[in-house]
Amino acid sequence: MSDLGRVLRLDARRTALLVAVPLLTAVGTAAAALSMCPPHAYWDNTVVALVNAVRLLGPVAAALAAWTAVRERPLDYLRNLTARSPATGVLFDLLLLSAAALVSYAAVTAVIVAVTVLHDGTGRSHPLGFAAGAGALVLHVVAGYLAGRVAPHRATAPLVLVATGLWSALRVPGMSWWSLLPPAALNQVALFTTLRPQVLADQVVWAVGATAALILGYVLWATRRALIGVPLAVALAASAAATLGLHGTAGGTVAPAPTEQVCREWPLTVCVHPALRDALPALTSAVIPLAARLDGTPGAFTRVEQRPAWAPGGVRDGVAGVHLDAALPPGFEERAVRRIRDGLRDARACPSPRGYGALVDAWLVGDAPPAIGDERAARVFGSWSEDRRRAWLRTHFADYRTCTLGPHDFRAATGVRSADAHGPRDAADGPGTTTHRTPHEAGNGAQGSPARPRRDPQPGATAQEP
């Protein structure tokens, strides 16, 4: 066996590889698990978890590579016994260490992908995202090993760990384009958005160019061959171009993504993002009472759709738009119903619920009636049946929307009910019923001069038809 073969076998038996693979796998899996906090599975966030895992995995890999370089430096004399290039041993070391790091990264990727698949992950997978994480990890290995070769001291590995750790930790996600340089610091991707492929491609080019530049720079220094300067210049140019591309993003990494929602069609149509399909039963049950009470009014709706955070909510053309917290915290469906109700009011004319409007607000969402200044109106409204309240809302919806409800709106309804208490027809429920009201009572309560309302009948007396 040649001297070169014996030296290569010696290189392959290093204990550093046996330590690196399980250690890096454990560290990477733990780091990725911390990033996968949302209860739903979203492929974009799977990529984010892997890229963010490299922020912890990379410094550990760099320190191990530096420790290996320092530890094996006394064996350089064995390489000098062969006729090979002085850079061959270094390149072989980098190949073995990079392979060990990539095996660990592949194991972490397999775990995270399996979790996403088991949870019926939605969205699009990004192969460039997986490549960006792998490129950043190899860059750390190369930088750490070459640092150990250039400065073979015991303190090199700890210093490499600190330096690479600070580079990862001090960059805040979304603050600047600096946070996009490998290893990138990324925020969780919100629903209805996706990672921009161009950003991931620039990260891959930057990592590959920087890695090639470090290796070629060391080979040029070790061999003194000027021709190596040509590929070195190409690698540096690629990294510079990628840097300009990342700088042009201004730190933005996501873009809106068209999403086909999943729906539940009965008893009314409710649609949400596929990642939140588990919210459909609770959300449907919560919106049914509100939809029934608004039936026949300008605020009626027969369809509920989840909207992105940047899209307006409210009821338009029979469709109610809602915003849902991706984590689906307890009570999310009740908050969605209240947002639909709040969207019924004119924000300019009615900035906050008060008085009689608050009484109707509580009934619409099934809350206990609040205390208002007019106890009589509150008592009357509370005594009506569900059908009578719905009929009353169809008549007074315009006043409710603009917060112009007044005591006359409730007194008029009370007089009608009392007048027909002994008659053959129900004044509120019977079709074709004619109600005699003053001009002011027949309007919306906000226009015209106020008219004197009819005197309410005394207790025990029967109101007479005019």
TrEMBL record:
Keywords: Membrane, Transmembrane, Transmembrane helix. It comes from the Bacteria. Coiled coil: none annotated. Residues 415-466 are annotated as: Disordered. Residues 419-428 have a biased composition (Basic and acidic residues). The chain crosses the membrane at residues 48-70, 91-116, 128-147, 159-180, 200-220, 227-246. This is ABC transporter permease. It comes from Actinomadura sediminis.
